[in-house]
Amino acid sequence: MAKSEGELTWKDIEIGSIVTEPGSASQYRTGDWRTQRPVFDLDKCNKCGLCYIYCPEGCIYQNAEGYFEANLFYCKGCGICATECPKKVITMVEEEE
Amino acid sequence: MATKIGMEVSVAIGEAVKLANADVIAAYPITPQTHIVEHLAELVADGELDAEYVPVESEHSAMSACLGSAAAGARTFTATAGQGLELMHEVLYIASSMRLPVVMTVVNRALSAPISIWGDHADAMAVRDTGWIQIFTENGQEVVDNVLCAFRIAEDRRVLLPVMVHLDGFHLSHMIEPILLPEQGEVDQFLPPNQYPLPLDPNKPVTMGGFGPPYIYPEIKWAQEIKLRAAKEVILQVWQEFGDAFGRYYSPLEGYHSEGCQVLLLTMGSFSETAMAAIDKMRSEGKDVGLVRLRLWRPFPFDEIRQAVKNAEVLIVLDRAISFGGPGGPVCSEIRSALYQQDRKPKVIGFVGGLGGRDISASGFEEIVNRGMEIAEKTSRNEFEVFGVRE
Fold first, then answer.
1. Under an 8 A CB cutoff, do B216 and A13 touch?
2. What ranges do the domains of chain B cover?
3. Do A8 and B216 touch (CB under 8 A)?
4. Where are the alpha helices (DSSP H) in chain B?
5. pTM of the model
6. For chain A, is the Cβ count within 10 Å smaller at the N or the C terminus?
7. Is B217 on the interface with A (CB under 8 A)?
8. Which class is B3-246 in CATH?
9. Thinking of the domain B254-386, which architecture would CATH place it in?
């Protein structure tokens, strides 16, 4: 997208506000809805993957070492991963500006 | 050569949709619209019209199916009336916001309660702000012609907006009138195939009806408003081309002995024909009275209205709907608003009448004009009066 959100005028809008680029929803930063962020204490993690399974956003991924992390561009901070983790690896921490 | 045939106006609408070569009709029958969709169902079943007829379970579904069909680039038609239009309500906004060129005839009917199947403009007025182009017709020929024009207007790339063609329930829909149906070749020449610029296509996927966060929603609405206003130029052009091709010309409003008149009556829809009889009689008695009929309701023809009434002293407006607790009939209050900033303007006197199919005869219109002139003399006036209601 050439223009930023704040620069778009009515003239930039496609007919019926049709989105012509497939999959463009992936550009939408849902991470800025978050008030709490998951912090992983990987020393406790046994790589069971329950956080990955329960995440309703599908934003938890497995890194090269096999541990799980949240993609903060999408993570809305719901805390389901922290609740479900049997090893208490994940703590929800307040987002501070 | 086209031939003039006596037929029910509803049936003639079906024939017009056939001439327009509609691809999809999704509709739910409701009085007084029923004969339109019955006739279309018959034309499709008999193989006379090569279209998909989708018999849906409600008007909400009818309009929803129309959205999908128009989004796929199909020429799409539906029809409804009264409660049916109300049930479509939320989907109407989606059709216009998504810029989908659906054409719909609305057979104007009163709203419940109590149940009334008869003519009235309450249904139309409730959908005034849905962003559709809206045309009010007076007689059968005008409906047929404007259904053909509606497809041209709606599908024009400069417009891409849905169009409602309004006609009065029973007073017009169920009349048998002489109708001149154009030849197929003439219509094909006037109405090119629909080519929606961004149709649903698996080879070129697009997202329609996505969501609009606060950072973009006002710009989207403003774009829609600009397009609807700009549509007027295309409407005028299409009416001109229709006239050149078929010899019948239409305009946003039509005057009947209205030039330079002191007193003007303004009506919308089929009652105007009766009003014309009253005007004839009053003029023969030496009264300086004329009639203005509003045809284009959205986009509202501000300039044409101001021009048409500027030299009159009194403008009497008849509405077939009440805006409860408001400033009078919707047509009257919009005309008042259009004239407010003008230096020279007539006194605008509002009447509401013809509710729920109550007829207004020619002598009734005479009474309305006389009473309007009487009210205009007073210094304090109510917002409106209801004509013919028993106190």
1. yes
2. 3-246, 254-386
3. yes
4. 9-19, 34-45, 59-71, 82-87, 89-97, 122-126, 140-155, 184-190, 217-246, 271-284, 302-309, 330-339, 362-377
5. 0.93
6. C
7. no
8. alpha beta
9. 3-Layer(aba) Sandwich (3.40)
Tell me if B99 and A16 make a contact (CB, 8 A cut-off).
Answer: yes
Please choose, from the candidates B256, B338, B344, B269, the residue with its C-alpha nearest in 3D space to the C-alpha of residue B301: B338
pLDDT at A1 over 60: no
- Provide residues of A within 8 Å CB-CB of chain B: 5-6, 8-20, 22, 24-25
Task: Please judge whether B212 and A11 are an interchain contact, meaning their C-beta atoms are less than 8 angstroms apart.
Answer: no
Chain A residues touching B98 at Cβ < 8 A: 16-18
Using a pLDDT cut of 90, give the percent of chain B over it.
96
Nearest CA in chain B to A15: B99
Determine contact, residues B310/B320, Cβ cutoff 8 Å.
Answer: no
- Please report the domains of chain A, with CATH numbers, ordered by start residue: 40-97 (3.30.70.20)
Cα separation, B117 vs B83, in Å, equals: 9
Of B81, B121, B129, whose CA–CA distance to B104 is shortest? B81
ipTM above 0.85, yes or no: no
Which residue on chain A is closest to B67 by alpha carbon?
A16
| B249 in A contact zone (CB under 8 Å) | no
**Does B230 contact chain A (CB < 8 Å)?**
no
DSSP A55-85: -TT--EEE-TTS-EEE-TTT-----HHHHH-
Average pLDDT over every residue of B288-306: 98
Chain B residue numbers with beta carbons less than 8 Å from the beta carbon of A19 are 206-208, 210
Q: Spell out which residues of chain A touch residue B219, defining contact as CB-CB under 8 Å.
A: 8-10, 12-13
The residue of chain B with its CA nearest to that of A13 is: B220
Contact indicator for A91, A70 with CB cutoff of 8 Å: no
Long-range contacts of B386-389 (CB under 8 A, 24+ apart): B386/B322, B386/B351, B386/B352, B386/B353, B386/B355, B387/B318, B387/B351, B387/B352, B387/B353, B387/B354, B387/B360, B388/B353, B388/B358, B388/B360, B388/B364
pLDDT-wise least confident of A16-20, A51-55, B96-100: A16-20
pLDDT tens-digit profile of A17-26? 999 988 888 8
Instruction: Write the pLDDT tens digit of every residue in B146-155.
Output: 999 999 999 9
Task: Supply B217's token pair.
Answer: 């929603």
